[in-house]
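[Automated response] Your request has been received and processed.

Submitted sequence:
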Amino acid sequence: MSKVYRRHSFVSVFSAFLNQACKEDNDLIKKYIQKYFKMTNVKILFNRFFLKLILSFGVMMGASLYYAPLTFAQHTKVLAQPGSYHMLLGDIEIIAFSDGSVPQDLDKLLTNTQPGEVKKLTELNFQTPVVEASVNAYLLKINGKLILVDAGTADLYGPSLGHLPANMIRAGYKPEQIDAVLVTHIHTDHTGGLMAGDKMVFPNADIYVSRKEADYWLSDENYAKAPARLKPYFDQARLKMTPYVKAGKLKTYEYGKELFPGILPVASAGHTPGHSFYQVTSNGEKIMFWGDIMHSAAVQFADPDVTIVYDVDPATAAQARKRAYEDAAKGKYWIAADHLSFPGIGHIRKRETGYGWFPINYTTSGVGQ
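Generated structure:
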């Protein structure tokens, strides 16, 4: 899941206007500001600084309108919910962290659907087609290391998201303690949280991503060839990944070998060209971190052929999802997905049509069922 932001000539035009206005006193602007504020007792000093201040506000407002996400509206109120959930997998402690949630209009986002299908399936789950999607990340405490799977959004998508660092700290973990971040794919609801402004959020961590994924998003050649609708994805990828590349902290891999004992990356291309699962095993137990293999439990468990506008290759993404569902149901192992309702951990079972989702039973002992 990643949100395409609108680009519009308004910002560039208004910026040019700002530059010109800051170079010379503009009587027309003065006149309208005076008329608007109707100040009789207060003299406005129309110097270049004041003009720049007013016009800068205009640019900010215009940018907020024209770069607003296409696909959702932010919450009007953000509730303080618990932001972590702990479980044990053999000798490994897994902590699910919430980065927050955000409303998604499934009628506009989901593709390859039948007429009325989204409404019908969401109603069966006591939902509406506009439903909140969780953004989850997962911390693995394994062999003395702290390894994070995906990194949340940071400040890219508004106040209801970007809470991963705070929730980690509340649970007793500082971002500087993280040894490695395993990236399922380079969409910014998974990599946006790597940076806070110009500062690395995880300065002591190596960032692991498949070579195919890194080559696709960070390649100058691919950027030049990318269609306009995908350009923002490339811009965002470079913004969040390049500081780690320059610091020598980006580690790319090929499939077939463990990254750490008990952690194996699994190819799952489709949503993006180098999308990866992470298989984690300990003492005969297994969990698969699915990343963005799915976005709506209500719709896509019932109909795995349904895709989403964020898929780079929708047909391949659907095939990868069906293989993942079949294997997880057959193997009866745990799965964890970044956009299933927090904590996003559970099992699935094959039904006559589609699959059933069985979220983890709440536990205070760590032994989920």
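Summary generated for your ticket: Confidence is low (pLDDT under 50) at residues 2-72. Residues 100 and 160 are 6 Å apart (CA to CA).
If you did not submit this request, please reply to this message.
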